[in-house]
Amino acid sequence: MEPFKYHDMLNIPYFSLDLWEKEFPHLVVGFSARRNGEDIHCRNYALHVGDRPEQVIENRKLLAKQLGIPFTAWTCGEQVHGTHVEQVTAADRGKGCDSRESAFSGTDGMITGEPDILLASYYADCVPLYFYSPDIDFVGVAHAGWKGTVQGIGIQMVQKLLQLGAKREEIRVAIGPSIGSCCYEVDERVIEPLQQVISEADTLQTIAVSHIPGKWQLDLRQANAELLKREGVSPGHIQLTKWCTSCDKDYFYSHRRDRGKTGRMVAWIGKRERGS
Ligand SMILES: [Zn+2]
Question: What GO MF annotations does this protein's record show (predicted)?
């Protein structure tokens, strides 16, 4: 079953991770969208793609309002395709909400146990990994492109949750809209590092299929799911979307399809103050 649900009857189009929001009503979890292929300025949420900052900040404010979360809760990192995970405290609330300079530097993963913090990260094909461990009530989000995937950003997120006392069998992961294997052709530059971490040929064949010598159709969502299972996350606790950012152009920007000149969607997760 598709875990993400599109909402179009509202002012701001977006997908919510319905499955989690129903089971854990204090969570707010989702992924932004555009409507009918709007241009890059309409629903771009990232400050690093040459868009006017005032427009981006306005887009963020409108989305926060739609979600019923204060804009000052919006907290983000400067994504560098690395594996650093930051634990976000109450004092960090709002870092990066209105400028790149105030975001966590060199940070692709964030976790927090604090309510009223909206962890936000930006995408145009890379894979958003959402985390929730109900036993310690911590949420997290991580940006996994192919580099972050093979370097183990998902594993770092699990490790951080375990250090905080989470039980492996409690950890939930959702893998959100991103480029599908349908549209993601790669060469040995990507496949060789992937083989270093998933060496079994039969498993690799389910993740990267080759129809042309030297080219593979890579399923980066499955690669992340496989690495998370190896880290002990229960397969029943890993949810995968079917949305492809390249195919589904009415809804999404795609770095590859749009040849690098495009906007960014935002993935978010946070906890509302209980009872609010
Ligand atoms: Zn596709």
Answer: copper ion binding; hydrolase activity; S-methyl-5-thioadenosine phosphorylase activity
Ligand 1: centre distance to CA 190 (Å): 18
* CA of residue 207 to ligand 1 center, whole Å: 15
What's the CA-to-centroid distance between 148 and ligand 1, angstroms? 20
What superfamily does domain 4-179+237-271 belong to in CATH?
A: CNF1/YfiH-like putative cysteine hydrolases (3.60.140.10)
CA 60/CA 198 separation, integer angstroms: 38
Q: What is the pLDDT of residues 42-64, one digit of tens each?
A: 899 999 888 899 999 999 999 99
Instruction: Please give the pLDDT value at position 37.
Output: 83
Distance (angstroms) between ligand 1 centre and the Cα of 266 equals 19
Buried b (16+ CB within 10 A) or exposed e, 111-133: bbbbbbbbbbbbbbbbbbbbbbb
pLDDT value at 275 more than 70: no
When the pLDDT of each residue in the chain is averaged and rounded to a whole number, the result is 95
Q: Kindly give the distance from the C-alpha atom of residue 242 to the centroid of ligand 1, in angstroms, as a whole number.
A: 9
